[in-house]
Amino acid sequence: MNNASKMAAINEELIYDAVKDLTKDKLEQTVRKNAAAKNFELTDEHLSVINLLIEHYQQSCETRACLAAHDHIRFLEDAYASKGGGKYLYKLFDAMPDTRGVLMPIHELAGLPALRLETDESFGTAF
Predict the structure, then answer these.
(1) Is 57 helix (H, G, I), strand (E, B) or coil?
(2) d(Cα 102, Cα 69) in Å, to the nearest integer?
(3) Positive/negative CA dihedral, 44, 45, 51, 55
(4) pTM for the full model?
(5) What are the pLDDT digits (tens) for 8-18?
(6) Residue 49 is inside which H or E element, if any?
(7) Straight-line distance from the first to the last Cα atom of the chain, in angstroms, rounded to the nearest whole number
């Protein structure tokens, strides 16, 4: 296993370890603290998306790779399809300072490790 593979495996464990025992109360406390530090106006809509993603990680990340951002953004887009999917999510998290996409600001607010492939520079895309 090369260094990149070892690091990816370690980071995947970090995602699951960071969320496996995380309660909604503790998550909300962390998110509110980090939002205040970034002067980000947090709403119930933001918290709903963040809670759903954390539940997804808790249910899905113990037995499979969780750092590839594409699967997680697709999960959220499907979950919020009735509100506009990706367009809704990008608008919701677009105002977060110094971040891009949807998953990057959620991870920063929730205090989670960064995802592998959360940006695709060749397409100019941030998930």
Answers:
(1) helix
(2) 10
(3) positive
(4) 0.81
(5) 444 455 788 88
(6) helix 44-60
(7) 27
